[in-house]
Amino acid sequence: MDKVAKRWSRITSSQLILVGLILGLVVGLFFGEKVGWMEIIGEAVIMLMQMTIIPYILVSLIAGFGSLTKEHAKLLATKAGLVLLMIWAVALVTIFLTSLAFPSVEKASFFSTSVISPPPPPNLLPIYIPANPFKSLAEGSIPAVVVFAIALGVAFIRTENKMDVIAICRTTGKGLNRVTSYTLKTMPVGIFAITASAAGTMTIDELNNLQVFLLSFIGVGLLLTYIVLPNLIARLTPFHWREVEQMSRDALVTAFVTANVLIVLPVLEQGCKRLFKEREMDNPQTDQMVDVLIPIAFSFPNAGKLTVILFVLFTGWFVGSPIPLAEMPQLGITGMLSLFGAVNVAVPFLLDLSHLPADMYQLFLVGTVITSRLMSIAAVMHLVAFVLLSVCLIQGQWKPFNRSMLKFVAIAGIGLAMLVVPLRLFSGWLVNNGSETNPLVAMKSVGKVPEQVYAKLPEIYRGGKYSLTDVAQIKKRGVLRIGYQPGKVPFSYFNRSGDLVGLDISLSKRLADDLGVEVEFVPYEVANLNTLLAQGYFDIAISGLEMDADSIQKMRFTPPVLTLNLALVVLDHDRHAFKALTQKAREGNLVIAVSQHERLVREVREKHPKVEIVELDHERDFFSGKVQADALLISAEEGYAWTLFYPTFNVVIPKSKATPYPVGYAVAWQNDALHDYLDSWVEIQKVRGVLDQEYRFWILGEGAENTEPRWSIWRNVLKLDEDQRRDESNNDALSELHEQPTH
């Protein structure tokens, strides 16, 4: 027993953490989603470790600044500021160059409401100005706490009889450090729980969607943590790379598995002090500077946070609108300023600022299990570099700058090339060999009613026999006849299996089911719609029909089913498309294609007589190149759906003046009875949330892809859930007898 106890005592905290990490991976892969609940244990451990952090920052800053002399405070402000600017510049250049690893590819996405209603800009004042310090402490607003602590600490520099207060702060800090050392012993358990939950719940599909970004993000995170920043320290200070790595190893491992930098601040503080003592480079004020620099550095954007700018660059690549090299410096400065706040605020803000789809932020959230850990280790090394470089600069212990920087550039450049070239080749292989499938062609409309789809207008309906069909007559004949436009994505189109699907098709099947009849779909052309309805070729017309002052005089419409937004589709992914199109309009050589929107076309011709309008038989003529035009006037919702089929096109929406318009279902002008029924039916679907559900599925693409249960050894290899799945399948079959069809 004594030997076992001795061997156990020799295991370091880093080794225990790694053991917890490995065991968590094994348990997560074995049990899958069954261990998702273990995330609660991990969160409890992290919260336990966080309880000392904000008080520690407060007392350490007050004691650190309060014990400084006036001259030393000036040195700290000027020289530490220069070091911080240098680290920022090095990190941003590394991030921008890493974006070269993205291969050439063209992609598109579903419509997002963010393109017409951008998120408000982040409000940084409450984050950094402690109008009420107690509120900042209670809400955990660390930057505001830092500002308050620095202000009070600086005030103590010239305050007499301050040593009693400073002594209390130092004693309190030592006590908080001891509490932290106690809570660190629970970290292996927390790491095990967090890793098991993450490994058990993250799906392979989610990883596949992020593979190019994740590989690049992992690469830049490791490059900054183990090559660029340690190399900068080794070139400019007497410390060697191995010394820095050994000192920060425990903190790096802990930050990686917990995705939390706060809990390792005391560890970093003690490690930096120990390095100076072991090298005999310390003086009476070295410890004070370390105490002050670490909390200060934490409140500023670090290299780890700056890596999220890579996601903005990735988003531009992903949607086919890469950010030009000339705009990268502006993105870096803006990103650095926005990252004074939280990453969750900065990323949507940067996406909007770069005119990129804000819904891509959801893709970023999918990968946070990995990205947050890489950001954390890069942040740890940023803090180490900032403290060591700043203290050495203040104490006059830097190596010759020019020669050292040349060596740094050479080593960092080699490391960057060894990262970017293989990543670009491998990412290109992944993209070219991946299963790039348009989700729209696989989407289905679920319904229980029998249906008949006609490819052309059937002869048996000629003559207007059913022109005044009411609900009673529809039920009597047992068939609801719906007029639809073929290829009107995402409202009515044929999927990969040849089935007629779409938002309006799905709602039509619900309507037929509520009436207790079968449904027939009859094709029509917009130019003949009024005549076809009046003569009774079909009962109701669907397919995203625009409601305007002209159309409501010819047909009766239901209340608006949806509100769409006008936009332009252009061939190139050009964020400045409107500027270019405006210039063409002034020169008199702008050609706009349009297939509907008659009233708007007349207004455009009146206001811009030099603009040439080309009317299309079908939107596909523009995308296929059959009709040549500079832009297509279409709803943004339809435009995004079309770009899924033709990703070389881009949807452009003027943020300053969105132009919404309603769409609904139409019946013959004289068909009052059916119109009254439809009015009430549409209102019922709105109240029940059916319209919102269909909108999210067909327009936003939520749930468009079938999700399989998470793969695990327990479920897929040992087949231990077969009986449970069989019971669930039987229950689902019974419940379908009583439920409305859903996606």
UniProtKB/TrEMBL annotation:
Its main location: membrane. Pfam families: SBP_bac_3, SDF. The chain crosses the membrane at residues 12-32, 44-68, 80-102, 140-158, 179-204, 210-229, 250-268, 292-319, 331-351, 363-394, 406-431. GO terms for molecular function: symporter activity. GO terms for cellular component: membrane. InterPro entries: Na-dicarboxylate_symporter (IPR001991), Na:dicarbo_symporter_sf (IPR036458), Solute-binding_3/MltF_N (IPR001638). The keyword Lyase does not apply. It is a multi-pass membrane protein. PANTHER family: AMINO-ACID-BINDING PROTEIN YXEM-RELATED, MEMBRANE-BOUND LYTIC MUREIN TRANSGLYCOSYLASE F. Belongs to the bacterial solute-binding protein 3 family. This is Cation:dicarboxylase symporter family transporter. The lineage of its organism: Bacteria, Pseudomonadati, Pseudomonadota, Gammaproteobacteria, Alteromonadales.
